[in-house]
Amino acid sequence: MKDQDKKKEQLLHKLEGSETEHKGTRETGAKLLQSEEILRMLIDGAKDYGIITLDPDGRVLTWNPGAERIKGYRAEEIIGQHFSRFYPREDIEQGKPERELKTAAAEGRFEDEGWRVRKDGSKFWANVIFSPLRDAQARLVGFSKITRDLTERYQAEEELKKHRDHLEELVKERTAELRAASLYSRSLIEASLDPLVTIGRDGKITDANAATGKATGIPRERLIGDDFANYFTEPEKAREGYNRAFTEGSVRDYPLTLKHVSGSTTHVLCNTSVYEDEAGEVKGVFAAARDVTEQKRTTEVIQRQAQEILEISTPVLQVWEGVLVAPLIGTLDSQRTQRFMERLLERIVETNSAVALVDITGVPTIDTQTAQHLIDTISAVRLLGAQVILTGVRPAIAQSLVHLGIDLSGITTRPSLAAGLQVAIDALGLQLIAGKKSSGREA
Amino acid sequence: MAAENISVIKVRNILMVTVPPDPDDETISALQEQVLRAMERYEAKGLVLDISTVEALDSFFARTVAETAQMVALMGGRTVIAGMRPSVAVTATQFGLTLGNALTALDMDRALDMLDEMRRERG
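The joint structure predicted for all components is written out below.
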């Protein structure tokens, strides 16, 4: 555009120059004619530019093929018409055409981009430059108007803008979604009552939730970057669990004890698993610690009580030298039988007793399993070289033993402890007679 | 090596053997051999196997002992196993191991008493 202006100016300048140089010669007229011809060719040849001139009021004076191509009017149709017909109705109503001419006249140039109307009424996006034309006395004789059809560029720009806006919208939406998702996950992590931490490959805490801060008494910011093992009473054991998570992928219910800054401790079971990035590379481990202090205490109490019950429920008493009495009370399970058996055998060896009376008066019911436990106990006692007399076989017990088809025929049984004691004394009497020489005791 | 660990002692007409703490199969087999040879040589009437130092009992041991008791019976003697530890008795029961018709006694004294008793009963 500017090049075009320049060319035109240069031409005009040349025209003036040649006028001054060759004033009054015959050649001048010819040259002038030649210059005007060149100018005309230039203007007509500029197919992409609508180059027209207007009179001072805005009526079309000259029209070039470029203008015809852009606006659709032929020269004979438009010359003499007011240029405001190129403007959309709303621009005309606002007095835009007149204003533009005035500005151009006042400032020497006016450039505008906007919608213009073709002959067929369709609109195109135009770049328009007005320049005032003045004579030697600087009187306004008209305007030159150069118009370019930039509709395609405009549309492309608009399209681009639309795309950009759409993209921005999408990015905004996606960002909001991501933020919401991230907030949601974070809030879940923070809502967890169990301490949750992530630990990097270097063993340093990379993230921790509020519950972790609570369990350790150390704020999250200070936890991050610190060695996780420092927060357990047994750092070595903690590290071992951490390493196992890497080799095995995950570790369940790993018992550890968390330290609080105040010195108190929390027994926890850690569930640990490795986590990966998008490429599938292991980035570290995720650990969740469940506070089991209360359960542990309860379990300990239960275990202790169960132990006590086992102890008190199976007393083994020495009632005479060489005679033990073991009154069984309650149901016999395998664990209890095991302990009872061990205790009875130990006491037999300790007291060097040849006879043990096992009284089952306090055993509510007897089933196949209980009977088997008793038979096992009696067999074990026999292996030691002692004898068991099973006493307290009440009618109901006798019935169920027979109905269950349990054979106790190889075992001495008596209905009451007293009767069993009698058997023991008899057995002892025999032994006492036999042992008279060594023990020196009288029966 | 197995045989050197075992000494069969004869007191009057009773054989006494202390089984080493951790007998292997070879030792147990050697034990049986020596006991039977001694039975033949001394015409003994009884055998006391002291297993008070034995800490674990396996099925081979249990079977060999039961068989030995049977063999000794065929040669006219009774066998008493003495001094089994409570822990050994518990394991033996759990695995269902038995000692056949061998008798058991709490200790050596009682084992000798038992053998005396039986001889007297038999006349």
